[in-house]
Amino acid sequence: MDQDQILARITAMVDDERRLRDDLASGRIDSDTEQARLADLERALDQCWDLLRQRRAKSEYGENPDEARVRPSSQVEDYQS
């Protein structure tokens, strides 16, 4: 994925988060369902942000950003910038 694709994926996941919260508020889903889906989204978002950071760092230091790889969620969870 290139930078634009990653950013589009992040935007889509943020929209999904909003929909989940709206679905909970309107009673379309229960709290357990919301929490499980949010947890999945948060892991995927962490991975996307990490991939984007890797690509940007490689570009900044003259490396090929296409060599950046998605790392396991356990490695990037709760990453603080």
Description:
- It is a single chain.
- By secondary structure, this protein is mainly alpha-helical.
- The protein has one domain.
- 72% of the residues lie in helices and 0% in strands.
- It contains 3 helices and no strands.
- The protein has helices spanning 3-26, 31-60, 73-76.
- It is elongated, with a radius of gyration of 15 Å.
- The two termini are 21 Å apart.
- The mean pLDDT is 93.
- Residues 56-81 are annotated as: Disordered.
- It comes from Streptomyces lutosisoli.
- Residues 72-81 have a biased composition (Polar residues).
- Residues 57-70 have a biased composition (Basic and acidic residues).
Structure summarized in a few sentences:
With about 80 residues, this protein is an all-alpha fold. It has three helices and no strands.
Q: What is the average per-residue confidence, as pLDDT, rounded to a whole number?
A: 93
Q: Strand-residue fraction? A: under 5%
Rg over CA atoms, rounded to whole Å, is 15 Å
Cα distance spanning the termini = 21 Å
What overall form do the CA principal axes indicate?
elongated
Helix/strand class: mainly alpha
Largest β-sheet summary: none
Biased composition (Basic and acidic residues): 57-70
Region (Disordered): 56-81
Pfam families: DUF2630 (PF10944)
Organism: Streptomyces lutosisoli
